[in-house]
Design goal:
Blueprint lengths: L15 H8 L6 H11 L2 E6 L2 E6 L2 H7 L7 E3 L3 H7 L9 H12 L4 H20 L5 E3 H17 L6 H16 L8 H6 L3 H14 L11 H24 L8 H9 L15 H32 L1 H16 L16 H14 L4 E6 L3 E3 L2 E3 L4 E5 H5 L38 H18 E5 L19 E6 L1
Parallel strand pairs: 2-8
Antiparallel strand pairs: 1-2, 3-5, 4-10, 5-8, 6-7, 9-10
Helix pairs in contact: 4-11, 6-8, 6-17, 7-13, 10-11, 13-15, 14-17
GO cellular component, one term: membrane
GO molecular function: heme binding; iron ion binding; monooxygenase activity; oxidoreductase activity, acting on paired donors, with incorporation or reduction of molecular oxygen
Family: Belongs to the cytochrome P450 family.
Amino acid sequence: MEQIPGSMGWPIVGESFSFLSDFSSLSGIYNFMKKRQQRYGKVFKSSVLGRFTVFMTGREASKILLPGKDGMVSLNLFYTGKQVLGPTSFLQTTGEMHQRLRRLIAEPLSLDGLKNYFQFINMLAIQTLDQWPGRTVFFLEEASTVEFWLFSQKNIILPSLNAVSGKINKSLNIAVHSQSEWKYDNELRAHWRGAGKVWANFKIISSSFASLPFKIPGIAFYRGIQARDRMYAMLDSIISKRRNGEGFQQDFLESLIMKHSKAADGGGDDENKLTDTQLKDNILTLLVAGHDTTTAALTWLMKFLEENPDVLEQLREEHRQIQANRKDGEYLTCSELNKMPFTAKVISETLRRATILPWFSRKAAQDFEIDGYKIKKGWSVNLDVVSIHHDPEVFPDPQKFDPSRFDEPLKPFSFLGFGSGPRMCPGINLAKLEISIFIHYLACRYRWSALEKDDSVQPTLVRMPKNKYPIVVESL
Ligand code: HEM
């Protein structure tokens, strides 16, 4: 069997510098990958970010890695991620346990389950956009706050983002009273007072993943673990209140606790029950996995639309039609989500072009072969998704933003915006729902322009514009 080709670069740092410098450009790791693929082929080794890594690309590699048949690979988290997310996060489990946790935790994220949050997201989108005209909006930052608020509402946890965004809260309250379906009472408001604290903790947790792995005061990782413990203490108190029948609220956590939590003593062996640790680890997992990705997707979408006025016009037309054909009321309805075929293509093209998660990281759980090379158990194996999304044979002129690429069904494994196989994104419906609602009001009511032209990208795992995409917004 042949040796895997590639270069390990310099001692200790390996090829990290060229990897990181390409990573921060608009085309991301594409150049890094392309150079090496031309020299070595579709499978090559490297040493980046302190790890010996085998990179692979192409639909063939995806077909082998993503279905993860017979427990061949597991998800490969960094040490910091493993420690912060906890041992029962479904990102850390494999096989049947992974499937069971995923089934229980992701249940409220089904299309049916999401109907409960439709009205809330509708109002949140309207009120958020309503505050933007006439001022500079750092889109990434604002979307991030709103995303968190939305998650919190569902997840439980928190309610008023008073500390973070009193304005949104106040205006939401007004809108809420104008819609009889949507109740927002004082009890709920009181319940939500912890929001500011949770948001602060969440931000610390998020920034601890890309830290040095030392539990020493002052290091981001140490602060992340502490913030995680504070958040878990809040969750403990909510879980115990709910278990005692206090603070009843029809939300995401409520549904998980009512359906799945084990008795407080942990007794019972019901397959459909979760321990408190499993609940907490996985609520945090959903928050971490869903927050930055959706924020980034919305930001890229705004940027690509602004840079492609023809696409924006076509999108506006789709949404104006929906609005014009609406018989009752002025707000988007759930059934109108099915009348947005072009919007769906714009979302897919955004995820292709931005490739928010540029590579999927796996660890070989056993020896296996790929493309004539032997992969050994324990090796880190990364699927380079950027190259798959920019393969000119599947996507001609790959740098062009062109939603019509999705007019016809694509070959399996050529578009991996939400992944594929047992690890495919369980938040796909929620993400699409949120983005579609947001686009509807945006396209019908506003225009915007970027305040600066800067294509650099933050060097974080989830790709986001470095300048936070500053824009000015005007009502149409
Ligand atoms: C536009 C927004 C989103 C994008 C582009 C996205 C993308 C992805 C991708 C590509 C994967 C597969 C990664 C891999 O195979 O290594 C994934 C997994 C995952 N996503 Fe998302 N996601 C988004 C939104 C969300 C939301 C809203 C949630 C939660 C509510 C979420 C939760 C997760 C979780 C928990 C996993 C891991 C699944 C597992 O290991 O079984 N994502 N996501």
